[in-house]
Amino acid sequence: MSNMVIIGAQWGDEGKGKIVDLLSAQSDYIVRFQGGNNAGHTVIVDGEEYILHLIPSGILHQGKVCLIGNGVVLDPAVFCQELDTLASKGVDVAPAYLKISRKTHLIMPYHRALDKAREKARIEGEKIGTTGRGIGPAYEDKVTRIGVRAADLEDLQLLRRKVEIALVEKNALLTSLYNCPAISADEVMAELTPLAERLVPYLADVSGVLGQARLEGKTIMFEGAQGTHLDIDHGTYPFVTSSNTVAGNAAAGSGLGPRELERIIGIVKAYTTRVGGGPFPTQLDCEIGRHLQSQGAEVGATTKRVRRCGWFDAVLVRESVRLNSLTELTLTKLDVLSGLKELKICVAYKYRGEEMQYPPQAEAALAEVEPVYETLPGWSEDITGAKSMADLPAGARAYIRRIEELVGVKAGLISVGPDRNQTFSACS
Q: In terms of CATH architecture, what is 4-104+202-264?
């Protein structure tokens, strides 16, 4: 078996959680390599819904080892809440099956406070759409070398000293710039001390664990969060997340070398969605958009915000193929398109008089593009019970094949519903 990286090839919310859960059965180790609890993966197993924010979806498979890599920013309180929720449902979350890199940076109470204060202070039209969970400020402290790492939970004196240093700047910003109350080191330590006792047994050298796994011939899955076009470098800046979401970061965010990344799967919806601010060329502010939102239950697992919906954007996904070296696609939520007489695919952009096959690079340029559409016939049949390509109506098969042609990568899996068993091979 090959090691695989699973990433979102749009703006996130593509249904990665279900696919990671499904393919975890083929892997020995499952690694989360970036982001924080601003992402939520919804997985439905035998009718039971699990929403995972930090812990890899592979935890739902008995005997798999799940790892949280150094590229993640972890909120200790959220992690412990997730442990308790999973344990209450009978999931084994013992440290033997779940480990956190000692290099993983922690989200602190002052990060959450600063995140919310900044977003509130932004004027309308300039709001980023942050979840307010402290992700960005935690990554800032990592880059400015004043961050708190998971290993610091093993030394509470060091932890307190780091907190005191960070609060000098954070309190100046909170009180003087944003008119918010100051936060004391005592408050922070009162929250963290009991959490540290719970987290320390989960700390490990994740890079070493992965290196040993490869020596033993084990297979590894790297689980990405958000989507390619929310990448801090390659996304629709500044309406992006705070980490690198592209497949290449699976190596840097876990501590395993890039030669180990063999199979790279891009998850795409059969249409396009986006939550929060930022340009969205194919957005539909009409009855069709509302149909997609309603039929697709397009509400964020983490934020509960309604997602904007639009036609499939092949330009966007074509760029994802290039950025991630995708070896295959997984197409999700094909069933949501049932009942639409006509379907459109954006095949190119018009930008300042030029037709473009890839997104323009200038900031805010995506807000200026005009999508060039190709129209295909839809289908009326309910496809949620389909078990193979042969079970799909001709219109659905043609739609899949046209997407493959436009983006230059074949589909490996097709999903026609939320449950594990509503997925089949595109080769069948």
A: 3-Layer(aba) Sandwich (3.40)
